[in-house]
Amino acid sequence: MSPEKKKVVRKAREKEPVICVVDVGNSHTVLGIFKGTKVVDYWRLTTRKETTSDEVMNKVGGLLGFSKISPEEITHVGLSTVVPALERPWIKALDSLLKKHVQVVNSKNCLGLKIDYQNPSMAGADRLCNVIAMRDAGFENAVIVDMGTATTFDVMKNGAFAGGVIIPGINASLDALTEKAARLLPVTIEWPENVVADNTDDAIRAGLLYGFLAQLEVLIGKIKKEVGCEDMPVYATGGWGKTIARRTNLIDKYDPFLTLRGIRLVALNGAGASEAGKDSEED
Q1: Is residue 126 flagged as an active site residue?
Q2: Three-state SS for 254?
Q3: What is the mean pLDDT of residues 268-275?
Q4: CATH of the domain at 132
Q5: Minimal CA–CA distance to 204: which of 221, 224, 183, 222?
Q6: Are 144 and 80 in a shared domain?
Q7: What residue numbers bound the domain in which 58 lies?
Q8: What's the average model confidence in pLDDT over 258-262?
Q9: What is the pLDDT of residues 178-204, one digit of tens each?
């Protein structure tokens, strides 16, 4: 590459938008920084449902201190949350810290995505982000399996969010099992060598992991048949996505940043920045 061309490329990169995105889930909160379309920093935090905007600002400010990107470089901010009580503290903190309006993903701010849901406002923001990201990648039909506290199967049909399936996540299933069965104790979650276990701990592991895998494969098959698109791609994301994707040939690709990619698009092109909580008192 000639020196002149290198200079043009460098200038183009310098002008790329820098986007801070936040995905607040029930168990974990993911904070990412994009420069253009590339993830340059990424942090995973524990979600605390009683947190305040001051605590959020302190934590995010500390993380940005380790980033290659300074707060002043950030041009856009996007937020997705499935915990309604945390929307206001996060908006207030991000607005105060980054001095940028916050685009909040919801059914009214989802880049015109058609939502085939009886009550569109009940569709989880993270689920909308997954479909937005797939649409931006050029897909019309797809299944996104997002494996977190809950595992969601987000169905994209003809470019729209067509609904899907929600089942308990692996950790949530283990918690429920050990809480209700007095003789069963929590175990580390790792693949046992055999489905037929000769000890209680491996029996629990086999039930959780192989049982989850069987459930996933059956549901993917039924979704494809019901949608009438047997060759639709299946993407996985979420904390358990990589582990499960390795065990089945029904998942075409694992993308840990899929939800963040959707938030990034809304941050850049959303219908209007939220002012909720900017000057309000918190409980």
Answers
A1: yes
A2: strand
A3: 75
A4: 3.30.420.40
A5: 183
A6: no
A7: 14-108+265-269
A8: 98
A9: 887 867 778 889 999 999 999 999 999
